[in-house]
Amino acid sequence: MSLNLDEIYKLQGELNTVIGRDTINDPKKHEWAFDYVIALHDEATEMFNCTNWKFWSSEGKDKQYQKIVDYKNAKIEAIDCLHFLVSLMQVCEIQFDNKLCNNIWTDSSNFVKGKHELLSKYSVDLINDTVILMSIIREAAEESKCDVFEKNFENGYKYDFDKRIEVMELIIENCITLLFSIFVILDFEEEDLLKIYKMKHEKNLLRQKNGYSVINKTEADNNEIKENI
Question: What are the chain's domains?
Answer without folding.
Answer: 6-226 (1.10.4010)
